[in-house]
């Protein structure tokens, strides 16, 4: 899905607990952005790095930073932005190298194709392009910035398609992959996301580690792990940056195993040392031997929405609603939950939780962790809360993918290997020149 990365921004806005502010806060954000950026006039436009004939400017770096705030649903913070500068420069360098690779094999994404993709993204969110642009502007991001971001992401699917045409799996390879998959299912597996920071030599390790620690601090401040991985990880190059997919426990490095053993689903690690450098890991899902992942569990739930405030609500109404929520959140059986709902004439729904609904899965996760009903502000009505009781859950037996899925999986691995090989060759021959003084100007907001 060529638009999946670009859609992350909009998905995270919807899930954000802190909505973007308009009016006074909107204007204040623009002032802060302007302070870090400086005026867009020529005298404040300067080159930070060159990759062959391509240049990376202070504006390129700042725009990438603004987009990460936007994608994570975070209000702009100057101190956090300054911490991102050096790591974002590394990511922008990779973007230039990727474009260089595309140029060498004569691959080009046109402006018309980019605008069509943006129109598709807007339509998927029930918005017009103008409405989408207005949403960006609320956080100081122009449509031009988003166009550049989408164009970069659109290169990956095109490159994958071109390389994939010469990487068709054979019947023997599919059978070998099936045998391997059967062996994998018998092991504990993790679906992992990483933010990898490469260490090219011993001298640079300390500086790289400092960058990683800065990113870890940003994660603790509430930045989206997936957004940071997509924009900062220096791991894979074929469009799956950050997402490692399902990995067998015994295939992890010792430091990685020790880290994931301590993590619950959706938790992330501290900075850990690995062969390639240092990284931060996030556990997206976990699967026991012969079972599917926890996110694929079949969960039977009881769920109800309770209004607790609004225009016609009195303080007495609110107190009563809160008391009902309190009682429901302490229910220790499905029968007790149903009885309480009937006593207070509250409608409830008995259903199987939708694994594709992030909101429902958040409730399920909370109920599973607390071993009590979960309470969360309703996704449909800001004046209501949802209360979910987890009745039961069943983890289905894992099955090997179909031949079609295995075919796609092998094709992707071949494409990734070929892409990575070419990318590393281009990187080793490219001329990179970083203006340390100008980089310091961006980082110190001068």
Averaged pLDDT, please?
A: 81
Helix proportion:
40-55%
Coarse shape: globular
Gyration radius (Cα, Å) is 24 Å
* Biggest sheet descriptor: 4 strands, antiparallel
Q: Which strand-content bin applies to the residues?
A: 15-25%
Task: Give a description of the structure.
Helix content is 52%, strand content 16%. By secondary structure, it is of the alpha+beta class. It has a four-stranded antiparallel sheet with strand order 4-3-6-5, sandwiched between helices. A four-stranded antiparallel sheet has the order 8-7-10-9. The protein has a three-stranded antiparallel sheet with strand order 2-1-11. The protein is globular and about 75 Å long. The chain starts with a helix and ends with a helix.
Secondary-structure topology with pairs:
Blueprint: H1 4-15, H2 23-37, E1 47-51, E2 54-57, H3 58-71, H4 78-104, H5 111-124, H6 129-137, H7 143-164, H8 171-185, E3 189-198, H9 205-220, H10 225-232, E4 243-248, H11 254-261, E5 272-274, E6 277-287, E7 298-307, H12 315-328, H13 334-343, E8 349-352, H14 358-370, E9 374-377, E10 384-394, H15 403-429, E11 432-434, H16 436-443
Antiparallel strand pairs: 1-2, 1-11, 3-4, 3-6, 5-6, 7-8, 7-10, 9-10
Helix pairs in contact: 1-3, 3-4, 4-9, 4-15, 5-7, 7-15, 8-15
């Amino acid at each position: 899905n060529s638009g999946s990365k670009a859609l992350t921004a909009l998905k995270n806005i919807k899930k954000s607990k802190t909505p973007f502010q308009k009016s006074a806060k909107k204007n204040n954000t623009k002032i802060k952005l302007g302070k870090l950026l400086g005026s867009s006039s020529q005298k404040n436009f300067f080159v930070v790095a060159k990759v062959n004939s391509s240049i990376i400017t202070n504006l390129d770096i700042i725009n990438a930073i603004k987009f990460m705030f936007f994608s994570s649903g975070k209000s702009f913070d100057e101190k956090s932005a300054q911490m991102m500068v050096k790591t974002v420069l590394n990511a922008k360098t990779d973007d230039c190298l990727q474009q260089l690779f595309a140029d060498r094999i004569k691959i080009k994404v046109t402006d018309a194709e980019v605008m069509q993709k943006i129109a598709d993204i807007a339509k998927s969110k029930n918005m017009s392009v103008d409405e989408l642009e207005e949403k960006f502007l609320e956080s100081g991001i122009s449509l031009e910035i988003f166009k550049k971001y989408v164009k970069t992401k659109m290169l990956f699917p095109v490159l994958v398609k071109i390389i994939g045409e010469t990487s068709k799996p054979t019947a023997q390879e599919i059978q070998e992959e099936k045998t391997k998959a059967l062996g994998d299912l018998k092991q504990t597996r993790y679906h992992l996301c990483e933010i990898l920071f490469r260490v090219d030599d011993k001298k640079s390790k300390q500086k790289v580690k400092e960058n990683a620690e800065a990113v870890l601090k940003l994660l603790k401040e509430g930045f989206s792990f997936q957004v940071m991985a997509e924009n900062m990880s220096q791991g894979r190059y074929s469009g799956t940056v950050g997402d490692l997919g399902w990995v067998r426990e015994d295939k992890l490095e010792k430091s990685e195993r020790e880290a994931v053993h301590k993590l619950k689903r959706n938790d992330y690690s501290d900075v850990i040392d690995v062969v390639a450098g240092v990284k931060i890991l996030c556990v997206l899902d976990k699967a026991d031997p012969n079972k599917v992942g926890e996110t694929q569990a079949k969960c039977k739930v009881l769920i109800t929405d309770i209004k607790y405030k609004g225009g016609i609500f009195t303080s007495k109404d609110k107190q009563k609603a809160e008391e009902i929520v309190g009682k429901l959140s302490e229910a220790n059986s499905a029968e007790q939950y149903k009885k309480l709902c009937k006593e207070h004439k509250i409608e409830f729904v008995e259903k199987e939780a939708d694994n594709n609904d992030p909101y429902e899965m958040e409730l399920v996760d909370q109920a599973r962790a607390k071993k009590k009903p979960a309470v969360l502000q309703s996704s449909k009505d800001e004046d209501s809360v949802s209360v979910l009781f987890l009745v039961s859950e069943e983890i289905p037996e894992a099955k090997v993918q179909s031949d079609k899925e295995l075919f796609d999986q092998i094709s992707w691995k071949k494409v990734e290997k070929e892409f990575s090989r070419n990318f590393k060759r281009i990187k080793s021959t490219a001329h990179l020149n970083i203006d340390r003084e100008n980089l310091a100007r961006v980082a110190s907001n001068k």
